[in-house]
Design brief:
Shape: globular
CATH topology of the largest domain: Dna Ligase, domain 1
Number of strands: 24
Largest sheet: 8 strands, mixed
Oligomer: single chain
Distance between the termini: 31 Å
Number of helices: 22
Helix content: 40-55%
Structural class: alpha/beta
CATH architecture of the largest domain: 2-Layer Sandwich
Number of domains: 4
Radius of gyration: 25 Å
Length: 590
């Protein structure tokens, strides 16, 4: 019996709270008979124990060794030794998806000796050297938290190690087992990184959940012309259309796509180069969407023509996509009304009702840059190129647009502060795109080298729906809540399920308490006192979702405000038991 680890062989399906979303998806795909590289998981309980003592709990090191031995048995390869070396990835996996917020180390187990063995086995020394270089770059950045510059395949492992030691003051461990344990500790530590804490705070995710760690046998998308990597969505996460959507990068590893360092090709290019793997991917996506009753975000690798699925999760989606997908799935009978309301957040509805460009406004404007329409919406502000500056200026009340060559998890605070995010590299599945959609922030990616960082200090209008950046401040108009049929439909459903009635200010007829006019009415902690004996109120702290929940506890029967649907959704969430609210949080944020 093991206490801290579990083998993800598909024979059973533990709770996500124990093995994290990534581990759960690996186990689920294995159970469905899909091609998944073998893996074991270090549980969130181990993370909790580690966070308490800053050291492995007793028995974990032995269990990891047992897990590696099992991977060796499953693959017929040997970790850290030839002639057929086993390389593994070490990936974070929280129960509630936090894309790009925590750490991953690939190609663990490669050394000068295993590089030679790998080169002999596959007959490709360039591939083996490239894989070795990638390991050093990630280990330096993720585990040692140092920047040693760009490494070259023309350098040796000794060269890379020397540069890392000079930059970090620390020696790279020689033993592959020591490197593995250092990577596991780095993933545990990333749960408490500044960016992860900010993301959880923004999305109201509890801090005590911890992360699991998935240790999985590597497959290689950088093994030549019949290999590659990509990300695929079972429906379009930007506009919600029921067609597959994704990106593919030939002869590359997954980090190349999600980091935004490279701009990948459309998924169609995979059909031309690897038709059998492409067809297998479409079949898997359809199966996973049916099984999970939600849009799937699938990470995959093709090695020598064979498709491997690495992860499948509920897709982050733009507000427009969330609305369309909900309505389509209701029509299909895939989800019920309660589930439908859990699939869209109050903030997403507010984003849908945010200002838009009037018809024809862009035709008369000066276009500064064009890129990939990665997350819809309009953002107007001054371009800044530093995330710390974006956060500082936004706190001072300034409207800012964050422009970066490409974003990383360390830019999260700037992305939260910005009214739009624009990048020079990367595609619609890059870090910038995925996180922007999760935040409901307009985003344009892949505008070209030097195209957007050169706009620093300039006021611009970003059209995330069109993938365009315009000079100056363009006029905008607010959508009508009653003109969007999908919102009208959800509002009617929410009215039936909401514990309170929500009316517009003009329908209150002067009989409501206006908390904007009451001293202390903007503070949530004052609501129990201010709402005693009050049935109908609006304004003040009731403009906040947590304030709405507090109002319910204080006995409110009617809330006055607009738009109505976000208030109804917040009321439904606020009235549910804590366990049910956690389920809603998972659905809304995964």
């Amino acid at each position: 019996m093991t206490r801290w680890t579990l083998k993800l062989d598909g024979s059973h399906l533990p709770e996500k709270t124990l093995i994290g979303g990534k581990g759960w998806s690996v186990a689920r795909m294995a159970a469905l008979g899909l091609t998944v590289p073998p893996a074991f998981v270090i549980t969130t309980e181990a993370c909790t124990a580690y966070r308490g003592s800053k050291d492995y709990p007793e028995g974990l090191e032995a269990e990891i060794a047992d897990g590696i031995a099992w991977l060796e048995q499953q693959t017929g390869r040997t970790y850290g030794r030839g002639p057929s070396p086993l390389l593994v990835s070490v990936r974070s996996g929280a129960a509630i998806s936090m894309p790009g917020m925590m750490d991953t180390v690939l190609n663990m187990g490669i050394t000068p000796d295993t590089e030679t063995a790998l080169a002999e086995e596959c007959g490709d020394p360039v591939f083996a050297r490239d894989t070795h270089r990638r390991f050093h770059e990630l280990y330096a950045h993720i585990v040692l938290k140092t920047e040693a510059g760009e490494f070259s395949n023309d350098e040796t492992a000794q060269d890379w190690a020397a540069r890392i030691e000079t930059a970090s003051g620390r020696t790279l461990p020689a033993d592959p087992a020591d490197r593995l344990h250092a990577a596991v500790r780095a993933v545990f530590d990333s749960w408490d990184s500044r960016r992860a804490k900010r993301y959880r705070k923004h999305h109201d995710i509890p801090d005590d959940l911890g992360t699991a760690v998935v240790v999985q046998a590597m497959v290689f998308g950088n093994m030549g012309g019949t290999s590659g990597t990509g990300v695929m969505f079972s429906r379009n996460p930007i506009d919600g259309e029921p067609t597959v959507y994704g990106e593919f990068l030939a002869n590359a590893q997954g980090e190349d796509v999600v980091s935004g360092k490279f701009t990948p090709q459309r998924l169609d290019t995979m059909l031309d180069a690897l038709p059998e793997a492409h067809d297998a991917l479409l079949r898997a996506a359809r199966m996973l969407e049916i099984e999970n009753r939600d849009v799937q975000d699938i990470e995959f690798t093709v090695q020598n023509g064979t498709l491997y699925l690495l992860q499948a999760r509920a897709a982050k989606r733009a507000p427009e996509a969330a609305l369309k997908i909900i309505c389509d799935m209701l029509d299909e009978g895939t989800i019920d009304e309660k589930t439908a309301l859990s699939r869209i957040t109050p903030d997403q509805v507010r984003s849908l009702l945010a200002p838009r460009l009037p018809e024809g406004a862009s035709a008369r404007a000066k276009q500064l840059a064009r890129g990939e329409a990665a997350s819809p919406g309009i953002g107007i502000g001054t371009v800044v190129t530093d995330s710390d500056e974006a956060e500082r200026r936004a706190k001072n009340g300034e409207a800012v647009i964050l422009a970066r060559a490409t974003t990383s998890p360390d830019d999260l605070h700037g992305m939260i502060a910005a009214l739009a995010v624009v990048t020079e590299r990367g595609g619609s599945t890059s870090h910038a795109a995925v996180v922007s959609r999760a935040l409901g922030v307009p985003c344009v990616t892949g505008c070209g080298e030097g195209s957007v960082t050169a706009l620093a200090g300039r006021k611009v209008t970003v059209d995330g729906s069109g993938g365009l950046i315009f000079d100056g401040e363009l006029p905008v108009q607010e959508p009508d809540e009653t003109a969007l049929s999908g919102l009208v439909r959800l509002t009617r459903i929410a009215e039936r399920l909401s514990p309170v009635k929500v009316i517009l200010p003009e329908d209150a007829l002067g009989g409501a308490l206006d908390l904007n006019r009451v001293e202390g009415g903007s503070e949530i902690e004052n609501l129990p006192r201010l709402l005693t004996g009050i049935d109908i109120a609006g304004g003040g702290a009731l403009a906040d979702d947590k304030g709405i929940a507090a109002g319910l506890r204080a006995g409110l029967k009617t809330i006055v405000g607009r738009p109505r649907l976000p208030i109804l959704l917040a009321a439904i969430r606020g009235a549910r038991p804590s366990e049910d609210r956690d389920t809603v949080a998972v659905s809304a944020t995964e």
